[in-house]
Specification:
It contains 17 helices and no strands. It has helices at residues 3-39, 43-61, 65-79, 83-108, 112-118, 126-136, 140-155, 160-183, 188-217, 222-226, 230-263, 266-302, 306-334, 339-342, 346-378, 382-405, 410-434. Helix 1 (3-39) packs antiparallel against helix 12 and helix 4 packs across helix 11. The longest helix is centred in the first third of the chain and has 37 residues, at 3-39.
Length: 444
Amino acid sequence: MPVAARRRHDREILALALPAFGALVAEPLFVMVDSAVVGHLGTAQLAGLGVAATLLTTAVNVFVFLAYATTAAVSRRVGAGDLPAALRQGMDGVWLALLLGALVIAAVLPTAPGLAELCGASPTAAPYAAEYLRISALGIPGMLVVLAATGVLRGLQDTRTPLVVAVAGFTVNAGLNALLVYGTGLGIAGSAWGTVTAQTGMAAAYLVMVVRGARRQAPHEWRGVLRPHAAGIRTCARAGVPLLVRTVSLRAVLVIATAVAARLGDTQIAAHQITLTVWSLLAFALDAIAIAGQAVIGRYLGADDPDGARAACSRMVQWGLLCGAGLGIAVSAAHTLVGPVFTADPAVRHALASALLVVALVQPVCGVVFVLDGVLMGAGDGPYLAWSMLVTLAVFAPAALAVPALGGGLTALWWAMGLMMLTRLAALWLRSRSGRWVVTGASR
């Protein structure tokens, strides 16, 4: 790649990735703050939060296609020069988010205790898990609107606004958690109410910004842009089905891992919850380049520039490998320092330190995987992502379920997570090398 082209791609990537990094890191910090505050209530409360947080993030993140598919669709239309169509596509995604949010609340509220038990919560942790899950479910519509509206802004090549909203939301969440958990004595329920309030406020802020954007970009037809369109909502839903399969498979990996850790005992599930929180923080950090990839690749393909898309993909893979290696070194250096932030239990700290070393070793692989995942999403290559993740699940599940049977502990479980990432790397690398993801035009 010529030096001038490489520098241009670097500027594009950094302009989108750096603000996206801040916004993405703020998201897992919601759970990290909850873990740090609740962890000092006791091990049973932290174990309950571990189960509930996994179920809650599963209920929300299976619909992450609301962000990913919207980013790809909007950025293609931006590349093709049709901003009103881009905004209309984005708003249809927001309406779909509200519909799905209502359905999820209706499913979660009556089944929370059963879900906690199904996920392996112990008798001491299950009541806390059910309480947190029931309250937090009320914030799910806001969380889904945040996903869809973020996808609209990313597709418009704007990652700065999500950064501002995410930082504000994290700040409110941290303050409310401390106030409601300890100041009012609500315990784990206070943590849940703080998160609900912060996420709903973020959704309201995003809606205001999207409406303003529609009025600015389509002054004569902004009301039509904002209205729900049945055909557009159906298109969003169809485009999201393969990504839904991909995400459900990925969430199944995390649920299986949590269920296995829960059956290893309260100490192991508590340490697993902290490890998973750190893993999520690192994943969101690395996903910043993937977010840039979605927006940049979609714009290049929408503008009929396949060479630019391939060159951007190559450069982003290099960035992903470098950033993953850097994060791995940082985690390795700090693996014994994380435990005291979350818990005073020495057994939990010991289990956590060993698991974090595995997490550190896998980070370079994660960096490349997340970038290639973002590139294929930006290209609208959802069906391949769905099939590759199903294969990955088929490899991971028996490896993880064998851990208790073979007498393994939390470290062995996280080695199974490493195997999962290597499987994803192989599948995504083969697809990127084939070039079959390069399809140009305003829609795929």
